[in-house]
Amino acid sequence: MAFGRRKKDADIAATSDPDVVAEAIEPSVEEDPLPAAAGWGGEDVDGPFDIEDFDTPEQAALARLDLGSVLIPMPPGGQVQVEFNQTGVPTAIWVVTPNGRFTIAAYAAPKSPGLWREVAAELAEALRNDSATVSIEDGPWGREVVGTGAGAVRFIGVDGFRWMIRCVANGMPEAMPALVAEAREALADTVVRRGETPLPVRTPLPVELPEELAAQMRAAAAQQAQQQQAMAAAQQAFLVQQQQLQQQQAQERLNASGSAMQQLRSTSTGG
Known about the structure:
- By secondary structure, the protein is of the alpha+beta class.
- It is 39% helix and 23% strand.
- A seven-stranded antiparallel β-sheet has the order 4-5-6-10-9-8-7, with helices on both faces. Strands 1-11-3-2 form a four-stranded mixed β-sheet.
């Protein structure tokens, strides 16, 4: 079952051309159907959504953090943690809560569902290779990969129209039920901005920080750089002081040695 593009489906259903309707609803024999998305309490889950499901991009951004390719709702008390690569480009944005942290990222995918099934199998194998205990559990959108070791991690995936979402929840085992509930709630209301650019399957969709958040990150980076410079200057001053003290102590020892020799010569000459 693929999520998103509900507005497009509604437009097709409203047409009076039976050929168009038949083409739209005819299932593909190549698709590997996924289980229905049974939500909490046995109810169906509507999201995550495609941005095309909304009348305007502004409507999609309401009450969501706009990260470019994904727009995610923030849980109460949640904070943002950003990971950068060596060039300073954000690679992962984590939502941190008292229960742990989770991240939601989107990837290019085929029009038909099935990519998450492949990715889930690969993730499970990678966890086993890392000596983690692995289990596959049913979730609101189908299979979820769970790994436990020193900590715990859960991978949740959703197939959409030309995109796939992967949510990663990471925390301590005892806090995972609450963390997973927070991650699922955010994922169910997430919006994907896929774009029309053709991309190879599995290509991560670009992450962009909101300007306000980017400004905060720049200010924090500048403050950290100033602190590092101040620490480096203080360390340099300490080293210079230590060097001067060592030189002073060496000179004092030399002077003391010279005085002792002078006294010895004076004694030997009877002076």
